[in-house]
């Protein structure tokens, strides 16, 4: 569980009150990333055992690099991915403070002091803080590394914690008067936005006698102000009375706390608001204004400050140790033409330099000019196409090559060429790229692409290179090896040996002849002849056709069974096989794949070759021909052994070849596919061999890809028209004329585009990828092949291959002419290459680590064939270094933009809860959660415009109908259920998701300004096809009703639209449906604050008959609940009575609006008469409005139950989640019992999950991410041990639903 604080203001003394506590957070932008500090050079063995930290809002998650040998114990598992090898810990750094109901703010900086270490006193070891975490106006002291900052790796399994802060008496009075804070706090809340924090040690000879560790802290603020603080470690005794404890064994404890004193405050010049600040400490002698390389007692601490205003930089310098007020020296650095977002000091080979980034898309380096005694611009780096957010420095060389010296403003460097051994700058930008810059020349040395905006970066120097970690706006943090990205990707271009006849090679072209004639004529100086020649030039002569060298196939190959050198195998139409050694760049002729006897005996010519496939062990090379036959040769054969001919009688030309496994070759022919099963490593038969299986496609497309399940005798084939065809090779009844006909097919899965790759995810799930840039999931129910759903790969126009599918799905394809490979889960790009054209022959090979979460490759080779004008060819090769990459990605990807709506659902496994979210980024996602922690998420089919609303409906736990509405009046319908052959669902990968179709509204010509604002769904009674009613409302006030069936067989349509004859006068914002007996009550809220009530039959047959009449869609009543828009609505049945076919019911409706009010209404309904089952209002609605229930618009309300008591949860733009209790005797009365802050921006929805037994409750608040809350009940002793007692650093005392859950006092 996260380090969570229970606010005493929401605790009931009886221990029976309901309230919520924060559980975790997922999604939303990463606001800060940081590495743990580098280890001392004397301990190189621990250098690869480090942490990196990722902040999202006030939550901080610690990850351990996967190169480490030991695992991290789970403290709380936010953003834990299935199969992760580094279990993260999450800490809620900024919690509620002193009963103040406000958000904790976002972390945007972490500082690790160098001098904070464990100290022993009186035989005991105290664990001090080792880091400072700051964000907004808050600053916290934390223990993040374990062992109080000891970098020896010995306590890496310790939990991460936050330390209490004790203000000194003088400082406390000042701070209390200004911010109304208590003297003891979980963090410091200061008077201005914090931009940076740095520390330096203070020698105190009395430290051992006072039990204190002293550190000087400098804090920089947005108002161009600095504060100097003294921070001391103190020991405090905490006593707990036995009569107040649950366990009498609890003894008084000694705990550490942070005593903080503000020493001085001074303002810098000019007096303005700055957008970034950084400072660095240097040592200077009193007598000289120079930097000393060695410290002595005459040195003073001098602070260099770099702060940035909108378009300029200010560089200040001051002496902090002076007894008088420091007078800073100011240097104004001009150059940027936009808002400056980041400034960073860095040590550039012993020289203090400054880097800056800006809105003007540039990165700039500033150096000290000793002659001018001023800061000058060294270079400007261009390359980013959007604003640049952050920059950091890293030395990618190993520590043995690094020669770090103290900072020196006067030293210079003579080298100007980029070198991996020199420090480099890494910048991240809104265009989704991270660029590596040479600090000497400003040249771009590497560029790493991502699918979303990159906001923050941090770097770390390691033994074998530098690492960088970046944070994205979709919640992903990615770590990259800088050295490998600079020097690890090698590119070269070599000519392919020309095996054409010599007379063709030596024959000059017409261009060569013309150039020779022209030069001779000019040498003779004959003007008349020149005129004639110029006249002849105007006549376009038909150039003689050049007989080019034709490359029929190319394969990147490496023997996986041995430690061999990667090679590129090339086959030509001259009958030659050759290989290129990638390391030495040398060509080797392997031998001919075609010889004369092949033409004499079988009628196959070398010019018939059209494609090639290479066995993994190089024991066989298959050459396909335009005749339909295949030439099978081997480099291990003796000179006397001939090639084997695979004779495909009656089949047309070979379109492609592929080795499915070591004993199966698949050949793709026009409208057919042949499977050849044999032992390719021991092919001795030189006679003609016929295929074992021939599949007849029966589509108009050409087969391009195949997935073969040999165990279950099943084959799935994709063609050039977007079709996927399923075959069962075991049933001989499908054999006709020697061909196996398909059992079923799915047409146009990839929009009439080529299906380039197909793989089996499991025994009944198929994944395919095509030139439409989408990934599609299909399912097999026995022998029935059905369509699932599809989603696009990030930033890809076309996908050529699915490289990895057992864990994360990794695909390769094109974005324009750029060939790239990426992880679809995280959006991280693994490599890219500009091929110069999508039609060029290309092949690649990649080796992935199955145990790596993101599937980052160890190495890869990419080869592209480039044709030249003279008919020859060049081979472009790009490959990674032999050093293994250490790139990885962490977190669960959700949405890039604001989440507008969300809803929960469960299936048979109640431990896994699924949350459906829809966002402004046009995407909808299903995420799996366990105990309030996210497991993974899956992307559904996106919409053309934004997604605004979502609803679910389910008859039972077997399946769920999911409806997504959005822009252009679009409605999408999905069916989600468990896979038939799966026992227990553990993640979204175990779901069977089927896209049913789009809902067609009665409005035509909808634009992006027309949108579905609200949708609700409810199951119908009766019927054989499990039907559901879906009601939607749009931005024009129109209503749309659909009947959706889960089973579309027997001629029954899945989606039927019903014509609604009337419209609302105002746009519809929210819809609620409620089943009351055999009727359905529909409530709609509009922008005018009105709530309209409708009544429909709950039976499918009655509903179909009812909708055939006129004026069937007409409200039975309504009322005005708000002065402004009704944003959210929920309802519950208070009572229902059915006697002699008559029904009476009382319904409670709660709404939240833009007027910051809650409206509770009570409706009394009854059946019209014995013959007419329609409902009517007995009287006008009883209304109770609670004004100012929130500080801002209310966006979500929901009713929950706890111990036979009903509560109302409400949330809105005020970033507060409030719990209101209904009065036991008056259901129109509410009392606010608790409020808890929500650390999200742009809150738009509230979703609540409670099982039928009400045993637990999870609440998801959605906006710029998802924050999960958990229902807990307080212990009576918590008020006694309330948070805020001096010395208590963190307290988690709670149990769930009255049962003891845990009792932890974290040390």
TrEMBL record:
Cell location: Cytoplasm
InterPro entries: Quinoprotein_ADH-like_sf (IPR011047), tRNA_Anticodon_Mtase-Reg (IPR051973), WD40/YVTN_repeat-like_dom_sf (IPR015943), WD40_repeat_dom_sf (IPR036322), WD40_rpt (IPR001680)
Keywords annotated in UniProt: Cytoplasm, Repeat, tRNA processing, WD repeat
Keyword tRNA processing: yes
Residue stretches of biased makeup (Low complexity): 404-423
Region described as Disordered: 398-423
WD repeats: 419-447
Primary location group: cytoplasm
Any one GO biological process: tRNA methylation
A single Gene Ontology CC term: cytoplasm
Family from the record: Belongs to the WD repeat WDR6 family.
Protein name: WD40 repeat-like protein
Biological source species: Fragilariopsis cylindrus CCMP1102
Native organism taxonomy: Eukaryota, Sar, Stramenopiles, Ochrophyta, Bacillariophyta
């Amino acid at each position: 569980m996260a380090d969570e604080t229970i606010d005493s203001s929401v605790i009931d003394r009886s221990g029976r009150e309901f309230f919520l506590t924060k559980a975790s957070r997922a999604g939303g932008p990463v606001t800060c990333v940081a590495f743990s500090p580098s280890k001392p050079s004397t301990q190189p063995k621990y250098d690869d055992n480090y942490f990196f930290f990722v902040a999202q809002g006030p939550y901080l998650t610690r990850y351990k690099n996967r190169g480490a040998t030991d695992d991290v114990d789970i403290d709380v598992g936010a953003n834990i991915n299935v199969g992760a090898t580094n279990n993260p810990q999450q800490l809620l750094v900024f919690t509620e403070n002193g009963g103040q109901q406000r958000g904790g703010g976002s972390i945007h900086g972490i500082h690790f002091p160098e001098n904070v270490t464990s100290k022993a006193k009186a035989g005991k070891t105290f664990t001090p803080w080792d880091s400072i975490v700051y964000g907004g106006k808050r600053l916290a002291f934390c223990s993040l590394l374990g062992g109080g900052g000891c970098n020896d790796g010995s306590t890496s399994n310790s939990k991460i914690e936050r330390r209490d802060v004790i203000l000194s008496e003088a400082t406390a009075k000042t701070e209390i008067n200004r911010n109304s804070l208590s003297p003891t706090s979980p963090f410091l809340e200061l008077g201005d936005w914090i931009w940076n924090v740095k520390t330096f040690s203070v020698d105190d000879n009395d430290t051992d006698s006072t039990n204190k560790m002293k550190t000087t802290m400098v804090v920089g603020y947005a108002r161009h102000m600095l504060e100097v603080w003294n921070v001391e470690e103190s020991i405090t005794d905490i006593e707990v009375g036995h009569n107040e404890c649950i366990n009498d064994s609890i003894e008084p404890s000694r705990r550490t706390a942070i005593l903080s004193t503000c020493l001085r405050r001074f303002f810098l010049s000019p007096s303005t608001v700055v957008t970034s600040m950084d400072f660095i400490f240097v040592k200077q002698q009193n007598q000289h204004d120079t930097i000393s390389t060695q410290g002595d007692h005459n040195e003073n601490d001098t602070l260099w400050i770099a702060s940035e205003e909108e378009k300029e930089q200010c560089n200040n310098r001051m002496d902090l140790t002076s007894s008088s007020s420091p007078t800073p020296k100011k240097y104004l650095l001009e150059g940027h033409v936009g808002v400056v977002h980041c400034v960073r000091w860095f040590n550039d080979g012993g020289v203090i330099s400054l880097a800056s980034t800006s809105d003007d898309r540039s990165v700039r380096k500033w150096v000290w000019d000793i002659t001018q005694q001023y800061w000058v611009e060294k270079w400007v780096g261009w390359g980013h196409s959007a604003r640049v957010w952050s920059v950091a420095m890293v030395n990618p060389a190993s520590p043995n090559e690094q020669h770090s010296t103290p900072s020196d403003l006067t030293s210079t460097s003579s080298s100007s060429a980029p070198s991996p051994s020199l420090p480099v700058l890494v910048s991240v930008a809104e265009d989704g790229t991270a660029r590596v810059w040479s600090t000497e020349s400003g040249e771009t040395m590497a560029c790493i692409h991502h699918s979303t905006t990159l906001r923050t970066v941090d770097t770390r120097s390691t033994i074998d290179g530098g690492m960088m970690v970046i944070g994205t706006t979709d919640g992903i943090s990615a770590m990259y090896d800088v050295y490998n990205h600079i020097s690890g990707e090698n590119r070269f271009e070599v000519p392919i040996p020309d095996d054409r006849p010599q007379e063709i090679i030596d024959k000059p072209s017409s261009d060569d002849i013309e150039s020779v004639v022209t030069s001779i004529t000019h040498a003779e100086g004959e003007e008349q002849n020149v005129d004639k020649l110029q006249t002849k030039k105007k006549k376009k002569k038909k150039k003689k056709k050049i007989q080019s060298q034709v490359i029929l196939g190319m394969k990147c190959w490496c023997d996986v069974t041995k430690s061999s050198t990667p090679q590129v195998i090339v086959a030509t139409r001259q009958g030659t096989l050759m290989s290129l050694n990638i390391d030495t760049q040398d060509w080797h002729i392997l031998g001919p794949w075609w010889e004369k006897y092949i033409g004499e005996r079988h009628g196959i010519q070398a010019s018939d070759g059209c494609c090639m496939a290479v066995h993994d062990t190089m024991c066989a090379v298959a050459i396909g021909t335009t005749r339909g036959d295949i030439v099978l040769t081997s480099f291990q054969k003796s000179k006397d052994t001939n090639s084997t001919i695979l004779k495909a009688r009656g089949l047309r030309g070979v379109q492609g070849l592929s080795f499915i496994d070591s004993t199966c070759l698949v050949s793709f022919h026009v409208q057919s596919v042949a499977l050849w099963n044999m032992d390719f490593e021991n092919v001795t038969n030189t006679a003609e061999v016929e295929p074992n299986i021939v599949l007849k496609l029966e589509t108009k497309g050409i087969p391009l890809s195949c997935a073969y399940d040999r165990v279950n005798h099943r084959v799935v084939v994709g063609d050039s028209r977007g079709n996927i065809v399923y075959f069962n090779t075991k049933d001989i009844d499908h054999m006709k004329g020697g061909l196996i006909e398909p059992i079923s097919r799915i047409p146009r899965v990839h929009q009439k585009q080529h299906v380039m790759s197909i793989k089996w995810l499991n025994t009944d799930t198929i994944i395919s990828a095509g030139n439409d840039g989408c990934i599609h999931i299909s399912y097999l129910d026995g022998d029935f092949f059905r369509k699932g759903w599809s989603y696009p790969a990030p930033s890809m126009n076309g996908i050529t291959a699915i490289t990895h599918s057992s864990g994360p799905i990794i695909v390769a394809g094109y974005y324009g002419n750029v060939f790239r490979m990426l992880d679809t889960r995280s959006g991280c790009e693994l490599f890219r290459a500009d091929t110069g054209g999508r039609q060029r022959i290309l092949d690649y090979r990649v080796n992935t680590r199955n145990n790596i979460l993101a599937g980052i490759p160890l190495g890869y080779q990419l080869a592209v064939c480039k044709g030249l004008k003279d008919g020859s060819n060049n081979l472009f090769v790009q490959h990674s270094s032999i050093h293994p990459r250490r790139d990885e990605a962490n977190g669960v990807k959700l949405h890039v933009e604001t989440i507008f709506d969300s809803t929960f659902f469960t299936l048979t496994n109640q431990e896994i809860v699924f949350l459906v979210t829809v966002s402004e980024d046009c995407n909808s996602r299903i995420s799996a959660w366990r105990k309030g922690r996210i497991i993974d998420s899956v992307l559904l089919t996106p919409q053309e415009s934004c997604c605004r609303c979502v609803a679910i409906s389910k008859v039972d736990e077997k399946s769920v109908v999911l409806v997504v509405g959005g822009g252009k009046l679009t409605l999408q319908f999905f069916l989600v259920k468990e896979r038939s052959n799966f026992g227990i669902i553990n993640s979204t990968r175990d779901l069977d998701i089927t896209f049913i179709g789009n809902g067609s509204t009665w409005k035509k010509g909808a634009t992006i300004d027309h949108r579905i604002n609200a949708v609700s769904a409810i199951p119908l009674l009766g019927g054989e096809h499990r039907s559901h009613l879906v009601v939607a409302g749009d931005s024009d006030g129109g209503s749309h009703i659909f009947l959706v069936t889960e089973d579309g067989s027997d001629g029954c349509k899945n989606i039927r639209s019903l014509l609604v004859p009337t419209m609302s006068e105002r746009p519809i914002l929210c819809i609620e449906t409620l089943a009351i007996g055999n009727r359905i009550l529909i409530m709609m809220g509009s922008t005018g604050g009105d709530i309209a009530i409708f009544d429909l039959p709950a039976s499918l047959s009655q509903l179909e008959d009812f909708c055939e009449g006129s004026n069937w869609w007409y409200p039975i009543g309504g009322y005005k609940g708000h002065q402004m828009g009704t944003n959210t609505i929920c309802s519950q049945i208070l009572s229902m009575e059915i006697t002699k076919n008559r029904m009476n019911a009382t319904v409670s409706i709660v709404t939240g609006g833009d007027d910051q009010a809650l409206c509770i209404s009570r409706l009394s309904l009854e059946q019209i008469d014995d013959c007419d089952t329609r409902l009517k209002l007995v009287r006008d609605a009883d209304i109770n409005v609670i004004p100012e229930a929130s500080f801002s618009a209310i966006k979500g309300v929901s009713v929950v139950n706890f111990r036979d008591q009903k509560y109302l949860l409400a949330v809105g733009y005020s970033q507060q989640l409030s719990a209101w209790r209904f009065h036991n005797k008056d259901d129109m009365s509410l009392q606010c019992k608790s409020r808890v802050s929500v650390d999200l921006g742009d809150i738009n929805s509230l979703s609540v999950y409670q099982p039928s037994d009400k045993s637990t409750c999870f609440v998801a608040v959605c906006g710029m991410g998802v924050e999960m809350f958990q229902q807990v009940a307080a212990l009576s002793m918590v008020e006694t041990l309330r948070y805020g007692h001096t010395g208590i650093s963190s307290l988690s005392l709670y149990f769930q639903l009255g049962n003891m859950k845990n009792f932890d006092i974290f040390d």
